[in-house]
Every structure is written in structure tokens, then in C-alpha cells.
Inverse folding.
């Protein structure tokens, strides 16, 4: 049984098919030629033996006493050789095997011609020849003399010859086998080389090398396929390039916009600061408006700063300033600076050092804690822990948690979970920036809901971010 | 693969001598006869076959020797070959032609006598299984134009 593994590859399949066809063809040709040759051989030897008997009888017949005596029959019998029987009426001269059937004798009597029959006896093939001896008148009419001659001739030699031919035919078919294997191998290689090239090209395309192409060889179906794949790769490359260009344009636009807004915004900030200093002396209505302007200006500043930060991430120009940081202290300082220490339960081991960007860590922790305080419900817990390679900062709140349909989008830019509650103090970029910061360190930021309700953000950072 | 080889082996082994039915394989041999047919001339001057009971057909040479020994003549038939003490006749057979060398001169035989010799020779030839279109060429002890003629028997055509 040929295993399943064998049938798997294209090369073994081609090989098996090719060899099968060749061997079957060779065997069929050998069989038919050996068959016709053996038929011809048997027939010719049969004819030769029959003619020999006719000649032997015809040579001795003119000298034979007629009507024959027992002696005459013995003479005739010895003339045709061993395994013979000569009869006339009741007289009978026999020697050797008597293989002659009644049907053969009937045929000799009724047909008045020489007849023959092949038979197998004692494990050997025989040719049985039977013939009457005729009397011919001077005018040519023939009548039976009553003498009948039966001879058995051994066909073993012919059989051996046929066996030899069959063996030779089989050997010839077997000799075709190595050539078939060689040809099949070459054919398989010629088919498989372009296929392998195509596979390599497809693999390079898959890993992002859009320049990858295969050179089409010849003008067969594989060449057509190669051309088609090349065209496909070409159009993918074109659309990818267009998409990248558009993306780059969009990013540059955002960067340009935020950059252009910065200058007027710093002027505006200065004005608002002046306004803030004089607000106390204003009328209550005017003060309220001034407060609103101050708040919105601060939001605008935050938004522009966040936009610029995002632009830096997109442009790949965000820099990681790695230093030795006591993570516990850094987190505590972050919370203290924003006066959140009273509202947040901080659990952190003392003296946990890591090589990180202190500013970015501060941004992320502030964002996560701020979100928890703003959207969740107390108690908000910040838990710092570490393994040999990583630092883990977990921020949990006790609020309603994040709806399941929102979970996959919390890190999207400007994603609003609740469209009705559009105005929040944040820029809508906080979590996106936090995640970018975590990834810049080679870590990650993930979100899930606690079983007790409440959201849980987990920041994972490597102990040595500079190693990347 | 194994199965293919098995099939090939089976096919090859089926190619040997197989038993067959009874088939016709040609003419039966001939050549036995109760006697030799000699040709004589009857009272009206025509050739007549006459079987001499020798209990065998014999050869052309034997038949011609018998003819020259002039057996069994009576009123109804006679021979037109002159008497000779030497009855030995040399006969050679080649394709389509029997050559007969007689121990006689051309004067010892009449034309009917020559027909006697030709018919007797052809008769034995035909009875031995030979063809009826055979020609006979007779040579005498002396060279004569009659020796170069290919003859046939008027009774065997």
C-alpha cells in the first residue's frame, strides 16, 4: 500500500503516474508482441512437424506392402519415430505414449486429411498429429487405404522458447523503469521549478516585499499563472502605495495643523492668563464667561499637545529617554502631583527599579488614574508589581465597567463611547497615547472588566526598555 | 507497483503452449497401392493401363524396369518397346521434370512405345502424391533430337 504521505507532494504523484503509465505501456507492448510471436512460433513449429510426418509417410509408402502386413505397419511406425501408432482395421503397431483421443481418430476417419491437436500430458505440451494414408489412382482420385498414422510430438522446446521470449519481454519492460523514473524526475522538476518560484514570490509578497516578482518561463499555463500573479502583485503594490501616501498626507496634515495652532495658541494662553488674574474683579456674569474661556483654552492646549504627540508617534520621531527609575516612587509622585493620593489606593513594593522613560510613565499612569477617577467610581486602586523581566501597573476602579461593545475601541483615537456625553475634559487621545507610550517601551497596555464590575487597565513594561 | 509486476508475470505465464481443438493441417500423405500401373498398347493401337499386382507401388525406376521386362503380354495388349536384356533405368526428378535414361536407342521405341514409358512414369509419380502437370524427358543411349522434348501422357492430363 502506498502511504498517504507519498501521495502528498506533486513530485511523487507525477513520478508514480509517469512510471505507472510507462510500465503499463511497456508491459502491454511486450505482452502483445510476445503473444503474437508465441502464436507464430507455435503455428510454424506445428506446420513443420505436420509436414515432416507427411514426408516421412510419403517417402516410405511406395515401398510398403499393400494390403499391409504387421511387418509393414511396424516399418511405417518406426519410420515416423517414437510415440507413434499405426493401425489398419484390426492390425495395430504402437510404440511409446498413446495420447490419441477418440475425437482425433474420428476426425482422421471422417475428414480424410491430416489433422493436429495440441494437448498437455505428463506436465508437458504435445502436438498430436493424425492422418490417414491415401491411395491415389493414376487419374488423381484419392481413396482411403485404411491405414491410419498417429504421432505425438513433444512441444517442450517450443514452450521453453516462448517462456524465454516472455522473460525477455518482462526484462525489457523492467529496463524501461529506470528511464521512466529519470524522465518523470526531469518532467517533475521542470514543472515544479516555476511552482517553487511562484511559492517563494507569494511568500515574499505575504511578508510585505511588494517588489517581489517571478520571471515567467515559456508560454504554458504556469507562465500564465506567473504573469497573473505578477499583475496582482503590481496592483496590490500600487494601491498600497496610494494608501500609504494618503495616510502620510493625513498625518502630515494633522501635524501641520497642530504645529500651526501652537503659536496663536500660546498667545491666547498668555491672554487667558492675564484674564484669569483679573477675573476676580469682574462682574459675576463676565467672570463666568472668563472662566469658560480659560477652561476651553486649556482644553485646546491639551488637545493640540496631544495631537502633536500623536503626530510624533505616527512619524516615528517619538524618542524614548531611558533612565533608572524607582517605579514606586515615580507612580507616587505622579499621583501626588495631581493631588490624587487621598483618592487612590496605591499598593507598591518599595525600591522597584527599572530602566524606563520617566516622563512617559508619568503620562500613562496619570491618564489611567485620571480616567478611573473621572469615569469609574471609588475606590480606585493602583497596584505595582514586578517579575524578573517586567513591571506591571494595574489600575482598577469600582465603577460600572466598560460596555462590551466599547471594549475593542477604547484605544481608538477620538472614540466616543457615549455620543450623548460628548463633552468631556479629555482630548479623546489620552488612551491612544498611553498605549503608544507602552509600545514604545516594548510593553503593552490592555483593558478588561473586573468580574465585580469596574474597569481594569494593565500596563506591562519591560524592566529594561533600553535593551530593545 | 507490485500489482503491476504480478499482472505482467500473469500475462507472460499465459503465453505458453495452450491445448487446442482439432485443426486441419493439410493433405494426407499418399503412396500405397496394391500394384504398379503399367501402360500397354491394345489391339486397336491405343494405350491401356494395366495394374501389375506387385503388392506395392514402387518407384518410377522400378515401374519402368518392369515395363521393359515385358510382363504379361497376350492378344489384347502388347508393348511397342523392343526387347532388351538390360532393364535398368535411371530416373532423376527435378522441379517439374522427370528425366529418364533408357538402356535403348531411339530406334528401339515407337512413338506409342514412348507414350507407354511417359505414362507409366507419370502414373507412378501421380500415385506417389506428385502433381499431374509433371513433364517427362527421355534420353536414349544415343543422342537424338527426341531426347530434348518435354513430354506428357495423353491419358494423364
Amino acid at each position: 500500500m502506498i502511504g498517504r504521505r507519498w501521495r502528498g507532494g506533486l513530485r511523487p504523484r507525477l513520478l508514480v503516474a509517469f512510471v505507472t503509465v510507462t510500465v503499463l505501456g511497456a508491459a502491454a507492448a511486450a505482452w502483445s508482441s510476445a503473444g503474437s510471436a508465441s502464436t507464430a512460433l507455435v503455428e510454424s513449429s506445428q506446420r513443420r512437424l505436420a509436414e515432416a510426418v507427411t514426408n516421412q509417410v510419403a517417402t516410405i509408402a511406395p515401398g510398403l506392402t499393400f494390403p499391409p502386413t504387421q511387418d509393414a505397419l511396424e516399418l511405417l511406425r518406426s519410420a515416423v519415430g517414437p510415440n507413434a501408432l499405426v493401425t489398419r482395421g484390426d492390425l495395430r503397431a504402437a510404440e511409446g505414449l498413446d495420447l490419441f483421443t477418440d475425437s482425433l481418430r474420428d476426425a482422421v476417419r471422417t475428414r480424410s486429411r491430416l489433422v493436429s491437436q495440441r494437448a498437455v500430458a505428463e506436465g508437458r505440451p504435445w502436438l498430436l498429429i493424425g492422418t490417414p494414408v491415401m491411395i491415389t489412382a493414376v487419374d488423381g482420385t484419392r481413396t482411403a487405404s485404411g491405414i491410419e498414422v498417429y504421432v505425438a510430438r513433444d512441444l517442450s522446446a517450443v514452450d521453453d522458447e516462448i517462456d524465454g521470449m516472455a522473460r525477455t519481454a518482462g526484462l525489457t519492460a523492467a529496463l524501461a523503469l529506470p528511464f521512466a523514473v529519470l524522465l518523470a524526475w526531469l518532467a517533475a522538476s521542470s514543472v515544479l521549478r516555476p511552482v517553487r518560484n511562484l511559492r517563494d514570490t507569494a511568500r515574499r509578497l505575504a511578508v510585505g516585499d511588494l517588489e517581489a516578482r517571478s520571471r515567467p518561463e515559456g508560454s504554458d499555463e504556469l507562465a500564465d499563472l506567473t504573469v497573473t500573479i505578477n499583475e496582482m502583485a503590481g496592483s496590490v503594490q500600487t494601491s498600497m502605495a496610494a494608501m500609504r501616501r494618503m495616510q502620510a498626507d493625513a498625518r502630515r496634515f494633522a501635524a501641520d495643523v497642530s504645529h500651526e495652532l501652537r503659536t496663536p495658541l500660546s498667545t491666547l494662553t498668555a491672554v487667558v492668563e492675564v484674564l484669569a488674574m483679573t477675573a476676580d474683579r469682574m462682574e459675576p456674569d463676565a467672570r463666568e464667561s472668563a472662566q469658560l474661556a480659560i477652561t476651553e483654552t486649556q482644553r485646546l492646549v491639551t488637545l493640540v499637545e496631544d495631537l502633536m504627540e500623536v503626530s510624533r508617534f505616527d512619524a516615528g520621531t517619538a524618542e524614548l529617554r531611558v533612565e533608572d527609575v524607582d517605579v514606586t516612587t515615580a507612580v507616587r509622585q505622579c499621583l501626588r502631583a495631581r493631588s490624587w493620593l487621598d483618592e487612590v489606593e496605591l499598593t507598591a513594593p518599595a525600591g522597584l527599579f527599572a530602566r524606563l522613560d520617566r516622563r512617559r510613565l508619568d503620562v500613562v499612569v496619570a491618564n489611567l488614574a485620571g480616567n478611573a477617577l473621572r469615569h469609574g467610581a471609588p475606590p480606585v486602586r493602583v497596584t505595582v508589581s514586578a517579575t524578573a523581566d517586567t513591571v506591571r501597573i494595574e489600575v482598577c476602579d469600582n465603577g460600572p465597567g466598560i460596555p462590551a461593545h466599547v471594549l475593542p475601541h477604547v484605544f481608538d483615537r477620538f472614540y466616543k463611547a457615549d455620543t450623548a456625553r460628548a463633552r468631556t475634559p479629555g482630548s479623546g487621545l489620552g488612551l491612544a497615547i498611553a498605549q503608544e507610550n507602552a509600545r514604545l517601551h516594548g510593553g503593552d497596555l490592555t483593558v478588561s472588566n473586573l468580574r465585580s464590575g469596574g474597569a481594569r487597565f494593565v500596563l506591562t513594561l519591560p524592566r529594561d526598555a533600553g535593551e530593545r | 507497483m507490485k500489482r503491476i509486476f504480478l499482472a505482467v508475470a500473469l500475462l507472460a505465464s499465459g503465453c505458453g503452449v495452450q491445448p487446442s481443438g482439432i485443426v486441419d493441417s493439410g493433405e494426407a500423405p499418399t503412396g500405397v497401392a496394391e500394384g504398379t500401373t503399367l501402360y500397354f498398347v491394345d489391339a486397336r493401337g491405343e494405350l491401356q493401363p494395366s495394374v501389375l499386382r506387385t503388392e506395392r507401388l514402387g518407384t518410377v525406376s522400378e515401374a519402368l524396369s518392369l515395363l521393359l521386362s515385358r510382363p504379361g503380354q497376350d492378344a489384347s495388349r502388347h508393348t511397342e518397346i523392343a526387347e532388351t536384356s538390360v532393364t535398368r533405368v535411371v530416373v532423376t526428378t527435378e522441379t517439374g521434370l522427370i528425366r529418364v535414361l533408357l538402356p535403348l536407342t531411339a530406334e528401339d521405341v515407337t512413338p506409342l512405345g514412348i507414350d507407354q514409358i511417359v505414362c507409366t512414369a507419370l502414373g507412378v509419380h501421380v500415385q506417389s502424391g506428385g502433381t499431374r502437370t509433371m513433364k517427362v524427358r527421355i534420353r536414349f543411349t544415343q543422342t537424338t533430337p527426341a531426347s530434348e522434348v518435354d513430354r506428357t501422357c495423353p491419358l494423364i492430363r
